[in-house]
Amino acid sequence: MSSVDLERFHTLGAPALSPDGRTAVVATSRPRLDTDSYRSELWAVPTDGSAPERRLTRGGRDSAPAFSPDGRLIAFLRTADGGRPQLHLMPADGGEPWRLTDLPQGAGAPVWSPDSQRLAFISRVPDEGRYEGDPAKEAPRRITGFDYRFDGDGFIFDRPAHVFTVGAAEPGDDGSLPEAVQVTDGRFDHGGLDWSPRGDLLCFVAARHDDRDRVLAEDVWVCAPDGSGLRKLTRTSEGVRHARFSADGATVVYAGSDAGPDKRRCTTENTGVWAVPVDGWADPVRLTDVERFTMGRATEITAVEDGALFCSENRGAVDLLLVPYGGGEPRVLTDGPRQAGTAARAGGVTVVPVGDGASPGELVALDTEGERRLTSFATAREWIPMEEVDGTAPDGYPVHGWLLRPDGPGPHPVLLMIHGGPFSQYGWRVFDEAQVYAESGYAVVMGNPRGSSGYGEAHGRAVRGDVGRVSAADLLALLDEALKRDGLDPERVGVLGGSHGGYMATWLAAEHGDRFRAAISERAVNAIDSHYGSSDIGWEFAEQLYGDPSTWADQSPLERAHKIGIPMLIIHSEEDWRCPVEQAQRLFVALRSRRAEVEMLLFPGEGHEMSRSGLPSHRVARFEAILDWWKRHL
Question: Are 310 and 299 in contact (CB under 8 A)?
C-alpha cells in the first residue's frame, strides 16, 4: 500500500437502532482524494444478518443518525459544501430528506423527545455582530478568561453553546422551517444532552459556576424542555463529558473523572461511569472502579434497562461493558484484541462498531443468539498484522506494545512511533500510520509506556513531574525488546511522534541520539513555559502534567536542543492552537542556528488534528514527506 491509499481507512460513527431492534443505521466516513474532502453517508443493515448493508443517503457529509421513538423518522446531521451541519429528517422506510434547521453556527447531534414530536440539540449562539462577514473586519475581542478558544473550533467565548429544541415538522408551503427555541441562557457552554423517558426533563452538562475559569469541573443539570426549573444534580467536583437518563428516568448516569481536592486534575485521570438521582436525594456515586476502568476516547454511555453500557480501555483493547445502576462488577459484552465504540440497544438487540486487525470498523450485533458481524465496509483484503511485545524497564516496570513487520526477510529499518496524550493508548485496530510505514518497508514499534491510558490510573499518573525521563525509559525498553525479533536492523532506527509523541521524539533525539539515525517531531510541546501561555489548554495542562513551574525548563526538550546531533524533521500546522506553531519555530531556530541538519514542514489552514482529519491532500503530502525523510536517512 502506498501513502496515497487513504480511502481505505474508513471510520464509523455511533449507530442508531429502530425501536424494534430490527434495523441499524450507521454513518461511515472516508477521505476522497478526487475532491480533497471527506464523504460521510448513512447505511442501513438488518440486525439479523439477513442482508448486507445498503446506502441510505448520498448527501456527502451525513452523520449522527437517530430513530424517532415511534420508528417513523430518522433525524441526522447534513453538512453542505462550505456550510455548517444542520438537522435533517427522512422517513425511516426511505424517501427524500428535508432540512429542519438553518442556524448560523449549525446544529449538534439530535436527541428525540419520547413522543417523537420534538428534537433537542446544541448550537452555538454568537455575540451580536460576530461571525457574520469578513473576520478581519470584526471588532477586537476583549478577553477576560482563560477558556476563550479551542483547537479546531476557533474562538468560543463569544459564541456559547446552548440547548435548543425544534418541532419535528416538514417545511411550510413557503419553504419556512419550524422555529428552533433556545432553552438555556448565559455565557456558558452546554453539552452532553439527553431527554428524559417521560419527556418532562432535559439533562445536560455545563460549568455554570462563578469559578469556572479556575475550577476544572462541570456539573450535570436538569430543566424542563422550556428551560424552567433549572437544577444542579452534582457537586462541581468532576470533569464531566456527557449525561444520560436511566431507562426509568429516576437516575442520571454520566461520564466523569475526579477533579481532585483542588478541582484542577485534568490530565491522567480515569473517566468512569457515575450515577446521581434525578430528585437530588443523594450525592453522585461512582459506579466503576477508579483504578481499573476508563472510558474509551470519543465514546459515550448508553443507558439501557439493566444498567449503563460503556467502553473501557484495556491494554490496547476497548471492551464493551455493562455496569448496573446500583454498581458492582461490570459485565463483559465484547472483549479481546479489538476496540469497541459507542453502542445502541433496542428490541433486545445491541449493536456496536468494532475495529480490529482486519478492519478499521464494522458493525456487530449482540443478542441471545450470540455475536455476528453485520457489515463489510473494509475494502482492503489484508493488513500488516500486529505482534505483541512485552518489555521491562530498568526499574522492573512492565512495558507493553506491538511490532508491525514488513513482508520479506529483512533486515528492515525500524521506526519507534510514539503516541500523543500522553494519557491515551495505541491499540488493537487498523491504524493508518502504522500500516503505511510497514507497507513501505519499515518495521514499526509502538506501545503504551507509563503515562498512557488503559493500564490503570496509577500507570497514567506515574509520569507526572518527570515526563521525559520516565517515558524514555519505557520506550527504549520496548524498542530493545522488539529489536530481538528476527528481520530488524538495530543500526537503522528512527523515532517519530506527534503532540506528546513529538515532545518525546525531541527528547529522545537529544538525550538518546546515539540510538537513532534521524527523528521526526510533529505538533510537539518543546517549550513548556511558552506552551503554558499560548496553548488553548496550556493554562490547565502544564501544571497538572509537568508539575512545579520551577522544573519546566529541566523538562523541556528545547532546553536540550544543543544535544541534538541527528537529522531532525519538524512538522507543524499553522493554525494549531493545542501546540501552537511557535513550539516548532523555536526548535527550528535553535537547531538551525547551530547549523544542525533540520527541516520544517508547515501546513497552512490546519490545526492539531491534521494527521487524522486534515485535508486528504495534506495528509498525503505529510505521508510522502515522512517517507522521503526516512528514505534519505534510514
Answer: yes
User: Which H, E and C letters describe 167-220, residue by residue?
Assistant: ECCCCCCCCCCCCCEECCCCCCCEEEEEECCCCCCEEEEECCCCCCCCCCCEEE
**Cα distance between residue 187 and residue 143, in whole Å:** 13
Q: How far apart are CA 600 and CA 372, in angstroms?
A: 48
Mean pLDDT (the chain) is 96
Distance from C-alpha of 254 to C-alpha of 269, rounded to nearest angstrom: 15
| pTM flag (> 0.70) | yes
Of 571, 509, 583, 508, which Cα lies nearest the Cα of 542?
583
Taking each helix axis as running N to C, give the angle between helix 500-511 and helix 467-482, from 0 to 180 degrees, rounded to the nearest 10. 80
Our CA angle for 485, 489, 490, nearest 5°, is 90
Q: What is the mean pLDDT of residues 539-561?
A: 96
Cβ–Cβ contacts within 10 Å for residue 334, how many?
A: 20
Which CA distances in Å does 257 have to 262, 288, 326, 463, 539? 13, 11, 19, 18, 19
CA 507 to mean position of chain CA atoms:
25
Q: Is the pLDDT of residue 313 over 50?
A: yes
Contact 188, 206 (CB under 8 A): yes
Overall average pLDDT of the 595-613 stretch:
97
The rounded distance, in Å, linking the Cα atoms of 349 and 16 is 11
Read off the C-alpha cell for 532: 503554558
User: Per-residue pLDDT tens for 483-511?
Assistant: 999 999 999 999 999 999 999 999 999 99
In the block, cell 510522502 appears at 624
> Is 527 within 8 Å of 507 (Cβ atoms)?
no
Q: Which runs of E-coded beta strand occur in 464-552?
A: 488-498, 518-522
Q: Which residues contact 330 (CB under 8 A, 6 or more apart)?
A: 288, 293, 310, 312, 321, 322, 323
Q: How far apart are the C-alpha atoms of 492 and 480, rounded to whole Å?
A: 13
Q: What does the alpha-carbon distance between residue 187 and residue 213 come to, in Å, rounded to a whole number?
A: 12
Closest CA to 122 of 149, 171, 83, 87: 87
Query: What does the alpha-carbon distance between residue 104 and residue 100 come to, in Å, rounded to a whole number?
Result: 13
Q: What is the DSSP letter of 505?
A: H
CA 242 to chain CA centroid, Å, is 14
Longest dimension (CA), the chain: 74
Q: Which residues of 571-592 are buried (b: 16+ CB within 10 A; e: fewer)?
A: bbbebbbbbbbbbbebbbebbe
Handedness of CA 490, 495, 500, 506 (dihedral sign): positive
Determine the 3-state secondary structure of 570 from DSSP: strand
Residue of 126, 122, 123, 182 lying closest to 159 (CA atoms): 126
